[in-house]
Structure formats: structure tokens, C-alpha cells
From TrEMBL:
It comes from Thiohalorhabdus denitrificans. [4Fe-4S] cluster 2 binds at residues 285, 288, 302. Residues 31-254 form the Radical SAM core domain. Pathway: Cofactor biosynthesis; molybdopterin biosynthesis. This is GTP 3',8-cyclase.
Length: 360
């Protein structure tokens, strides 16, 4: 490619559908007729942040025990599972954590996943701290896009949220590095929690308008049991929408694809688009095609699951791919999860897997 061609065109070309590329791929449907399409892979339970709503220091302090190396799936084990999932119809992968980039050589894993027949799209969710110096290697390995989490544009507010005193400026450098590497448009995720950062909705929108990046507001969810979630803490999608619309009128946009979790809006003045993810007040379980793999190889068919299914034991116990595939097919076929449609104060208090284990 010529030097002066913008990097954004350096991305991996669009791929054909898994059925075209992978004749053995099938559509596996669950008990509510939802296909299996997305696999989210957590590669570590560790993180260099202690976001107050995700890994509060009281629960994840210096005495917290993280998973030992031997208990975490190797890159080879992850890639093998990705191959089996692709055979069942998965065509999108998201790498997450903890903070995925604290695990070394992530580009090696991306390369292995990009080589899996049937995988069309590989993305990574990160706090962006380790992106400068990494973004190009990730792109070269086959990463398609990046989602960056940033919960405030005000430096003091952001430092309070990440709780390790990390400056906003460095996250912005990470976003820039991703865009320059051709991994844009970057999606920027902001979790909105009452009393924490709802005063940042407009400043964040002001900052990211007209940049080409897509800011997405996420309702605070009752994932896990350590973040002290209460319904009163949720700033609803409707409130977020109204706040934005009063400042810059919004117009709804069609989803990019069926089952897209964010409701899309464009600024009527042409300054780009925003998304709102309303998993608490306007659930989207009816189109949920996502399955989640924890760093230690437990599979969750819902973000709010209490009990994972141990794939590591199958892998390390010598099960052949066919047996693992049959297990996954049976598991998905019986899936009837729709937690967000059924949420009550009582369900919120039930034991659930932590976000830092399965990565959102
Ligand atoms: N460390 C990476 C990051 O922050 O992007 C990836 C893992 S993090 C668990 C994935 C996403 O989950 C982040 O965007 C984070 O803000 C979001 N998240 C964590 N806890 C949440 C909660 N209780 N409600 C809504 N989103 C949450
Ligand atoms: Fe770490 Fe991401 Fe959780 Fe923040 S949201 S503590 S960056 S895993
Ligand atoms: Fe999917 Fe569970 Fe979230 Fe519903 S609550 S959208 S089933 S992960």
C-alpha cells in the first residue's frame, strides 16, 4: 500500500459468510430460536485499573488472589475452541478481560484467531492504556476494530473512577493510536452511573462529536455481586437520550445488523453518531446471540449467569473436537436465558459471575 494512503484502508478485507468459507458451519439455535453468532473471550481476570463499578478495591485489593497461569486457557486452547465454535456458526469474536492487553503477546492470539475458518470479525475491548505501541501489531495480526472504555472526559472524575489515578490524556492517546493504525472508527464506551459520572454525558458527547469515533452510553448493570448495584443508580437510556437531545437534537438510525445492542442516533447537525445500550430498561434478550468464555475456560450463555460450564476440563481431559462440538450444541440448544427481561431486586442479589471474569 502506498505510504500516503490513510491507514483506515489497511484493514483486513471484508470476508465472505462462514457458510461460504466454511461448508461445515451450521446455524445452531437455542430454545428461543436465537442463533449462536458471537463468542466473547476473556483472556485474563487481571486489570491495571480498579474501576469503582467493576473491580472495587474493597473486593479486588492487594490481597485478592488472581488466577494462576496454569489455570488460564493457553492461546492454543482458545484458538481450538474458536474453531469448534466457528463450526457451530460463530462468526464474530471479541477479546476482553479483565484488561486483555495486560496479557503478553495478544497479537499472537489475534493471529491465531484470524486464521480460523468462518471468523469474519475480531474486535477487542480495552481501557486503551497499553494501546500505543500495540495497535499496529494487533491490526497486522488481523484485528478489525477496537472498543475503548472511557467513563469521563474530566480528568479528576476519570481518575476517581479508575481509582488508580490514570489520566484521561493517556486514554485519548490510546484511541488516537488505534485510529492511526486503521482500527477505527473507534467505539468509545461510557458506563453511566448516577452520582458517579452522569454530569459527564454532555462533556463526553461534546468531545467526541465530529471526531469520527462513536460514543456509546451504557446503562449501569447488575453484573456480578461486588459493585453494590441498585436500580436507583441506573441513569436510564431515556434520560441519557433526553439529555443529549436537549443539547443537540438526535435522529434515530437503523441498526447496522439485526441484534445490534446499541440503539443508534445521529446528531441532526451532522456531527456524527452516538449509541445507547439499554440492557436494564429496554432489554434486547430476544436477539441475543452471544456466548462468553472466561479466562479459565468456563462458558456462560448469559452475562448474568451464576454457573459456568467447564470447557477446560473437556479440553485437558482429551475430548476430541467433535465431542466438544456436540457438548456445545446441546448446551446452546437448551438455552433459554433472558435475564434482563426478568430482572428484579431479588434476581439482582443472586450469585452471579463478576464482569472482570467474563468481560462484558
Ligand atoms: N478492561 C477492558 C475495558 O474496560 O474495556 C475490558 C473488560 S471491561 C469488564 C468491559 C466493559 O464492561 C467495559 O466497557 C466496562 O465499562 C463495562 N462494565 C463493567 N462493569 C459494568 C457494569 N456493572 N455495568 C455496565 N458495564 C460495565
Ligand atoms: Fe478493568 Fe475494564 Fe473493569 Fe475497568 S472496566 S476495572 S478497566 S476490567
Ligand atoms: Fe443476552 Fe443474558 Fe444479556 Fe439477555 S441478559 S441480552 S440473554 S446476556
Amino acid at each position: 500500500m502506498a505510504e500516503n494512503v490513510p491507514r483506515v484502508f489497511g484493514r483486513r478485507p471484508f470476508r465472505t459468510s462462514p457458510l461460504q468459507r466454511n461448508p461445515t458451519a451450521m446455524t445452531t439455535r437455542d430454545a428461543l430460536h436465537r442463533p449462536l453468532r458471537d463468542l466473547r473471550i476473556s483472556v485474563t481476570d487481571r486489570c491495571n485499573f480498579r474501576c469503582v463499578y467493576c473491580m472495587p478495591k474493597e473486593m479486588f485489593g492487594s490481597d485478592h488472589t488472581f488466577l494462576p497461569r496454569a489455570e488460564i486457557l493457553s492461546f492454543e486452547e482458545i484458538a481450538r475452541l474458536a474453531r469448534v465454535f466457528a463450526g457451530l456458526g460463530v462468526n464474530k469474536l471479541r477479546i476482553t478481560g479483565g484488561e486483555p492487553l495486560v496479557r503478553h503477546d495478544m497479537e499472537e492470539l489475534v493471529g491465531m484467531l484470524a486464521a480460523v475458518e468462518g471468523i469474519e470479525d475480531i474486535t477487542l475491548t480495552t481501557n486503551a492504556t497499553l494501546l500505543p505501541g500495540k495497535a499496529e501489531a494487533l491490526r497486522d495480526a488481523g484485528l478489525n476494530r477496537i472498543t475503548v472504555s472511557l467513563d469521563a472526559i474530566d480528568d479528576a472524575v476519570f481518575r476517581r473512577i479508575n481509582d488508580v489515578g490514570y489520566p484521561v490524556e493517556r486514554v485519548l492517546e490510546g484511541i488516537q493510536a488505534a485510529a492511526e493504525a486503521g482500527l477505527g472508527p473507534v467505539k468509545v464506551n461510557m458506563v453511566v452511573k448516577r452520582g458517579m459520572n452522569e454530569d459527564q454525558i454532555l462533556p463526553m458527547a461534546r468531545h467526541f462529536r465530529d471526531t469520527g469515533h462513536i460514543l456509546r452510553f451504557i446503562e449501569f448493570m447488575d453484573v456480578g455481586n461486588s459493585n453494590g448495584w441498585r436500580m436507583d443508580d441506573v441513569v436510564t437510556a431515556a434520560q441519557i437520550r433526553d439529555t443529549l437531545d436537549a443539547e443537540w437534537p438526535l435522529e434515530p438510525l437503523d441498526p447496522n445488523y439485526p441484534g445490534e445492542v446499541a440503539s443508534r442516533y445521529r446528531f441532526a447537525d451532522g456531527a456524527g453518531e452516538v449509541g445507547i445500550i439499554s440492557s436494564v430498561t429496554e432489554p434486547f434478550c430476544s436477539t441475543c446471540s452471544r456466548v462468553r468464555l472466561s479466562a479459565q475456560g468456563e462458558l456462560y450463555t448469559c452475562l448474568f449467569g451464576g454457573q459456568g460450564h467447564d470447557l477446560r476440563a473437556l479440553l485437558r481431559g482429551g475430548a476430541p473436537d467433535g465431542e466438544i462440538g456436540e457438548f456445545l450444541k446441546a448446551l446452546w440448544s437448551g438455552r433459554a436465558d433472558r435475564y434482563s427481561e426478568l430482572r428484579t431486586e431479588e434476581t439482582a442479589a443472586r450469585p452471579k459471575v463478576e464482569m472482570s471474569h467474563i468481560g462484558g
